[in-house]
Amino acid sequence: MLECRQYAKLPREAAMIRQEVFVEEQGFEVEFDEIDPIAQHIVLFENGAPIGTCRVYWSGSKNSHVLGRVAVRKDYRGRSFGQKLLQEAEQLVCSMQGKTLCLAAQVRAKAFYEKQGYAAAGEQFSDEGCPHVWMYKTL
Q1: What is the pLDDT of residues 64-100, one digit of tens each?
Q2: Which of 67, 76, 86, 126 is the most buried (most CB within 10 A)?
Q3: Domain of 74?
Q4: Closest among 125, 115, 52, 62 to 84, alpha carbons compared
Q5: In a domain, 131, yes or no
Q6: Beta carbons of 122 and 103 less than 8 angstroms apart
Q7: Which H or E element spans position 127?
Q8: Pick from 70, 38, 39: nearest CA to 54
Q9: CA 113, chain centre distance (Å)
Q10: Extended beta strands in 9-77, E state
């Protein structure tokens, strides 16, 4: 059984998934930041086990809600759980009367986001040595 839960504070399940995926697996060093306390966090559970997470927050400089820290644990990939997290985040933004959602995608994940209706805008940039690109979607 799949269940998505939303949190106003970073829950330990989301922190655990992000530590596992971004720090241990991908080698990022600066994973937890000043955005975490202001973001809404979503955690996806399968049969009670936390398997994926993401966060959403408003950015005045982007004039958009921003989706970030999308992560699915390695053993659960390839089963459309990333797509489920995006759908949940988009519904959350719509419930807050948001009209757009943007994200800084790792370039290697760009095709995944394009399949979900996001379009790249702007030049690639580096985040801790990993190429990223901003992507946008009108909801």
Answers
A1: 999 999 999 999 999 999 999 999 999 999 999 999 9
A2: 67
A3: 2-98
A4: 52
A5: no
A6: no
A7: strand 125-127
A8: 70
A9: 11
A10: 40-46, 49-59, 64-72
